[in-house]
Amino acid sequence: MTLKLLPVDFIYKYFATASVLIFGLTFFTELMASDGNQYSIPDEMQKTLIEEMIWVEGGSFEMGSDAKEARSRERPKHNVTLDGFYIGQTEVSQALFEQVMGWNYSYFPCDTCPVNNISWFNMLLFIERLNEATDKIFRLPTEAEWAYAAKGGKHSKGYRYSGSNNIDEVAWYAGNANRKSHPVAEKKPNELGLYDMTGNLWEFCQDDMSRVAYSHTAAKNPLYSRTDNAKQKAMKVIRGSGYEFAANESEVFKRDGATNNVRMPDIGFRLAMSKN
What we know:
This protein has helices spanning 8-23, 27-34, 43-51, 94-101, 120-134, 143-150, 167-170, and strands at residues 53-56, 59-63, 78-82, 85-88, 138-139, 202-208, 235-239, 255-259, 267-268, 272-274. The chain is α+β, with helices and mostly antiparallel strands. It has a single domain, classed as Alpha-Beta Complex (paralog of FGE (formylglycine-generating enzyme)). The strands form three sheets. It has a four-stranded antiparallel sheet with strand order 1-4-10-5. It has a four-stranded mixed sheet with strand order 8-7-6-9. A two-stranded antiparallel ribbon has the order 2-3. The longest helix has 16 residues, at 8-23.
């Protein structure tokens, strides 16, 4: 099953229920695996992880789009200012996830492929344990951080996709992916050296999904959230498009949503980290 560009209300009602039915049987297995206190990673893996966190200099940019292809959820185009931050060069790999969590139920298994078939809640637990293992403070990117990085930050050349106007150069998408995800960093990076910001997997962000968020968020370091309770069921923003989506569904401004308990073969994530 692959998440397509369906109405947000339909996604929320259908997949929130389906995820419980389809994946509920794995909960006990995950719980047992997560109790193994596997909160460490090898020194070399940690070194690589830190080296591949890319610094994004703060600045201002136009988020969203008023293009005719933009949907209401992507309007209006508005100015956003961000402090500097770090973001992962690639989507989180299956190898890193399994090392920390002790399990990996990803579709298309391979160590260097992006981890998938995990919920937003699973991602938060992984990050909590990764922080314990590394003594760092990793997190999910905000949607604004993700969008700024995808556009190339201060080095942006205004491409249609992240890193190019030719989607085949930078993305695994419906036209070349053969209906599956691929190892990270096989395509051309964007202006900041980030891989797969278009295509391969959709990526969860911190923000709650709303069709009107762009009209109601702060101009500096925005984060749209309806509650401070991270354990509450909610629709979360996903960005970047995925391997079963067409070029005209994958422009750099496109956004969608998925509930925080849903697991899909075409949704993953990448890490972010504040400067301090």
